[in-house]
Write a structure and sequence with these properties.
The complex is a heterotrimer.
Chain A lengths: L4 H7 L14 H7 L3 H24 L9 H23 L1 H7 L10 H11 L4 H31 L1 E2 L2 E2 L14 H18 L3 H4 L18 H7 L1
Antiparallel strand pairs in A: 1-2
Helix pairs in contact in A: 1-7, 3-4, 3-6, 3-7, 4-5, 4-6, 6-7, 7-8
Chain B lengths: L21 H23 L1 H24 L10 H11 L7 H17 L11 H12 L15 H9 L7 H7 L6 H6 L11 H13 L6 H16 L4 H6 L3 H8 L10 H21 L6 H18 L15
Helix pairs in contact in B: 1-2, 1-3, 1-9, 2-3, 2-4, 3-4, 3-5, 4-5, 5-14, 9-12, 10-12, 10-13, 13-14
Chain C lengths: L22 E3 L5 E5 L9 E2 L6 E2 L4 E4 L8 E2 L4 E10 L5 E9 L17 H10 L12 H5 L8 E6 L8 H8 L1 H15 L3 E7 L3 H10 L6 E6 L8 H9 L14 E5 H13 L5 E7 L7 E6 L4 H7 L7 E6 L6 E3 L12 E6 H4 L12 H5 L6 H9 L3 H6 L10 H5 L6 H17 L1
Helix pairs in contact in C: 4-7, 11-14
Classes of the chains: A mainly alpha, B mainly alpha, C alpha/beta.
Chain lengths: ~230, ~325, ~425
């Protein structure tokens, strides 16, 4: 079944949300989602890099030799990351400072590499661009929502604006690592509930439970036939 | 001929069971906690009782709610949630706002216990995780030690000198201020979390539990002995170290939690020693004045490994050897 | 060996309500229903026909198999039917129905056997029809059919560790001398140098009586067992008396021991003296709803309901009727079944008493681990069973479980642990067959 263009675009928002369903790129997500502005900034950076690299890799897919494709993807992604980082440094130095090492680390972000490998290398340029935008929006939403929750509970503010701070003692553990994992777990549970676990049911073969189940190139039918 | 009975209950042996069940065990734990609660109310006033009731009610409520949402059988009857609530309350300073206590209950019951599968499946003691979460999340309210006139002279004078000093004996000791006498420490006329102050009351509860065979003495004895021995090694007063902070509460009521402690006696002794070692290491070398809850949490996580290492040897002849 | 001096166990309320009461003989019932398989091993084939006149002690079923024991008529009368029917073990079996004439006349064959050799002794033990009367039901003639001189210890099991049951106790007090005579005969013909009589410490009068009669005899020793369940389990009593280890896949003979129940020894002794085979059984009738709890001598094949009626009937509708002790006995679905050789008690409990088990989650309290006489890890076996993890079950030595029920008795979560382990054992055996 071929997906429509709209489906490709919306796919990454909930149904195949890169963080909450595919469980990719969790490390930077957990690390930066302490403040909403950081989450948004990181999300947009990833969105830009992901869209550009998807377009580029899709366009070059016939030129890139299969055996060295990963280094090639890395080079492409690294170029875009460098551009984004330099842009941030020039126009939003405070955000750049807050995100610190996580911007250069987008190079090895598994979402981008994962989409390059699983989608862009097999699909047309337009589809890849839509996928990149969709996945990027999904990531941005997740990072921002997580960051809003953690910032509200842990510091009593949202996007730096006071909401409850001063009236209610903030629950500082929410901006620390345990709070991050806790919110992450809750959001995964919520998405699982919303999609009724559909994203996971795709894979009924041996590798069930693998985080890559939803976009794994090995189809269910093939896995089933092997049995 | 008398009437025949052809529809009798058929069940597997044994047809008699010991009188102890989960609820009766938990009830015994609650009874054992009463002396410490009484001392707490005596020293801190009626708010100690209110905070305890609040914690118990919230824990039972969250247990009921989460089981209901997850469509599982209702388990509040086993009283384990009430025990968690009371022990959590004992770990809190008396002036902690009620809603913060409720957050602790939520973490303890929902996150630590029910999300892992309910009673028997939790990886760590719910009350300890609840306390540690509050301790890290609400650092300043959790260190808000109220001063009441029933406390020892050393604490009252320290409070006059510097009202912002956390005036628990361990904090006084760390700051080099005079500490309460050992008798005051033992009786509990000191500052600290609600339930941990009176070593005497906690020991009374512990003896009740041991006599009722609810807990085995292995963990408390090895825990307390390790703390005493290490105090001597570090050149500290062992009686002060045993009565200060949460050692008694931890050793008797929290480290002995069945679910998160080893199953064999050997394992329990190792567990108790481990708790004692970590407690003293944190007290002496780390930046926190108190380390009981972290020590127990660490050992909780090691429990499955201890269990694996201390399995009983099956009653059978040695491998390949004759039976004689 | 690395094991402590004593094996673990549990403290069970003794509930020996009928202790000290005499054994009352029960008159022959109207009809007896005698199943042809009352022992471990090959079932017997009826040797009588419908309409035959039979007398008490006459053989009505026999088998040529090595592991079997003959079955005798417990009353005098006529064979009314030979049918297929359900027995208390829940199996379909041939049942000989005998209508009693109420006289209980003895058969002509009931004469003391003449014994001059080991072979004759074993034949006589077999002919007595005695099987393991403690509940196991292993034919005694087969048990004794070994090369003389290969056994070092004869162990007489008088532990009676099950709650409620007091018939062994009563028999030990009433027939002390007969038991000792039986032991001496066994030791003589099987050339066993040493005998231990294991009696639990809650029966000091029985211990004293044996000690008095055995004064000066160094070869037979009374061993006072601790008051802890299950001292009467074969592996436990062997270890407690001799320090030897018998475990899964072994029989006591591998460790140079033979274990016999005290009542089995008594019944065998009676046969050697009088020629009367096993036709009746001492039964404790007890339980919270029995009007007159007492010890009775019941002709084998008597329906359970008749025995209960003889004891005054029941105060209320029963919930459970247990054949044997409450720790290892079997709950019978109906009281129409008849009393077998290996029964030692009929316990009737009210519905309220019977419905006391409501399973909750395991809280890892370790009571089962501390209770297991075989030093197994019941909590972990239970978890492995739930996961259907055969490898783990094997590794946890579930096959060494002897189904004593100590773990399930102490479990505060009321988990039917030994019931799970029985299924787990079957799983492991099934897997090892493949």
């Amino acid at each position: 079944m071929k997906k429509t263009k709209l489906q490709i675009l919306t796919n990454g928002i909930i149904r195949e949300n890169p963080v909450l369903v595919l469980v990719l790129g969790t490390c930077p997500t957990l690390a930066i989602s302490t403040q909403a502005i950081n989450g948004l900034g990181m999300g947009v950076s990833v969105l830009v890099v992901l869209t550009c690299s998807n377009i580029m890799i899709s366009a070059l897919k016939r030129i890139i030799p299969d055996t060295v494709r990963i280094p090639c993807y890395i080079v492409v992604i690294a170029s875009f990351v460098t551009m984004v980082q330099l842009a941030l440094k020039a126009y939003l130095p405070s955000l750049d400072k807050a995100l610190g090492v996580y911007i250069p680390l987008i190079v090895v972000n598994c979402i981008i590499l994962g989409r390059a490998e699983a989608f862009a290398s097999k699909n047309s340029v337009i589809d890849s661009m839509l996928d990149g935008i969709g996945m990027g929006i999904g990531y941005t939403l997740t990072a921002t929502v997580m960051a809003c929750i953690r910032e509200l509970l842990g510091s009593g503010t949202i996007f730096g604006h006071t909401v409850t701070a001063g009236t209610i003692t903030p629950f500082t553990i929410m901006v620390m690592a345990p709070g991050g994992f806790f919110v992450f777990g809750c959001l995964i549970a919520l998405v699982n509930k919303l999609t009724k676990g559909k994203a996971r049911e795709k894979q009924q073969n041996k590798c069930l439970g693998c985080p890559g189940a939803a976009f794994c190139s090995q189809k269910v039918e093939e896995g089933g036939a092997e049995e | 001929m008398a009437e025949r009975h052809t529809n009798l209950i058929v069940a597997s042996a044994p047809h008699v069971v010991s009188p102890a069940n989960t609820a009766s065990i938990m009830r015994d734990v609650l009874i054992a906690l009463i002396p410490a609660l009484a001392v707490s109310v005596y020293v801190f006033g009626i708010r100690a009782l209110m905070l305890s009731v609040c914690c118990v009610v919230f824990c039972v409520f969250f247990e009921w709610l989460s089981r209901r949402i997850m469509k599982r059988s209702n388990t509040i009857g086993d009283l384990s949630a009430a025990v968690t609530g009371l022990i959590l309350a004992f770990n809190l300073p008396v002036r902690l706002p009620f809603w913060m206590a409720a957050v602790g209950c939520l973490i303890a019951i929902v996150v630590v216990k029910q999300l892992f599968g309910g009673l028997g499946q939790n990886f760590a003691n719910p009350a300890i995780v609840g306390r540690i979460t509050l301790f890290i999340g609400f650092a300043s309210p959790m260190a808000n030690w109220t001063i009441t006139s029933r406390m020892s002279q050393a604490i009252l004078s320290a409070a006059e000198v510097d009202a912002t000093t956390g005036a628990t004996p361990l904090a006084l000791s760390a700051a080099g201020l005079p500490v309460p006498t050992n008798m005051e420490m033992f009786l509990g006329l000191i500052n600290g979390s609600m339930g941990e102050i009176s070593a005497a009351a906690l020991l009374l509860g512990g003896i009740y539990l041991i006599v009722r065979k609810v807990i085995s003495p292995a963990i408390p004895v090895s825990f307390l002995a390790t703390v005493a021995v290490l105090s001597l090694v570090f050149g500290l007063d062992p009686i002060f170290q045993l009565c200060a902070g949460g050692v008694m509460l931890g050793a008797i009521f929290m480290a002995t939690d069945y679910v998160t402690s080893p199953i064999t006696t050997t394992g329990r002794i190792i567990f108790g020693i481990g708790c004692g070692v970590f407690t003293m290491l944190i007290r002496v070398y780390a930046s926190y004045p108190e380390g009981v809850s972290f020590a127990i949490l660490l050992m909780n996580i090691l429990t499955p490994h201890i269990d694996r290492l201390t399995r009983h040897k099956t009653f059978k002849p040695a491998e390949g050897g004759a039976s004689k | 060996m690395g094991f402590s001096k004593h094996l673990n166990g549990v403290h069970v309320n003794h509930s020996k309500n009928t202790a000290g009461l005499p054994i009352i003989p029960m008159p022959a019932p109207e009809k007896v229903y005698i199943p042809m398989s009352q022992h471990i091993g090959a079932p017997c084939t009826p040797v009588v026909k419908v309409g035959d006149a039979v007398k008490t002690g006459q053989i009505i079923g026999d088998s040529d198999a090595r592991t079997s024991a003959p079955i005798h008529s417990s009353v005098s009368g006529t064979v009314e039917a030979i049918t297929q029917g359900m027995t208390q073990a829940g199996k379909i079996d041939t049942i000989v129905v005998i209508k009693s004439d109420g006289k209980r006349e003895l058969a002509d064959t009931v004469v003391p056997p003449e014994i001059n050799s080991f072979e004759e002794f074993v034949a006589a033990v077999r002919a007595s029809g005695v099987v393991g009367l403690g509940g196991a039901g292993f034919p005694m003639g087969t048990k004794f059919n070994i090369k003389p001189g290969t056994v070092e210890y004869l162990i007489i099991n008088g532990a009676e560790c099950e709650p409620y049951i007091t018939v062994d106790h009563a028999a030990m007090l009433e027939f002390t001398r007969d038991i000792i005579d039986g032991i001496r005969a066994t030791m003589k013909w099987l050339q066993i140098p040493k005998c231990y009589i294991g009696i639990e410490g809650n029966k000091p009068d029985a211990i004293a009586k044996f000690n008095e009669l055995l004064k000066g005899d160094e070869s037979i020793k009374v061993h006072e067992l601790r008051q802890i369940y299950p001292q009467g389990a074969e592996r436990v009593i062997i270890y407690e008396t001799t320090g030897r280890i018998v475990s899964y896949g072994m029989i006591p003979w591998n460790a140079g021991c033979i274990v016999a129940n005290v009542t089995s020894m008594l019944k065998m002794s009676h046969y050697l003296k009088t020629g009367l085979p096993l036709v009746s059984k001492y039964i404790t009738v007890d339980g919270d709803i029995v009007v007159h709890p007492q010890n009775v001598l019941v002709p084998i094949g008597t329906p359970i309901a008749d025995v209960i009626d003889f004891c005054g009937g029941l105060k209320e509708e029963p919930g459970k009727i247990i054949l044997g002790g409450p720790m290892m006995g079997r709950a019978t679905p109906s009281d129409e079944y008849s009393v077998c050789k290996s029964n030692s008690a009929i316990l009737c409990f009210s519905k309220a008493f019977s419905n006391q088990r409501k399973e909750t989650a395991c809280i890892n309290c370790g009571r089962c681990v501390a209770a297991c006489p075989m030093s197994l890890m019941p909590a972990r076996i239970s978890r492995a069973f739930k996961d259907k993890d055969v490898e783990a079950l094997k590794e946890l030595d579930v096959l060494y479980c002897m189904d004593c029920g100590s773990c399930a008795y102490v479990c505060p979560a009321r988990k039917p642990l030994n019931f799970e382990f029985r299924q787990a054992k079957a799983m492991v055996m099934e897997a090892s067959k493949k």
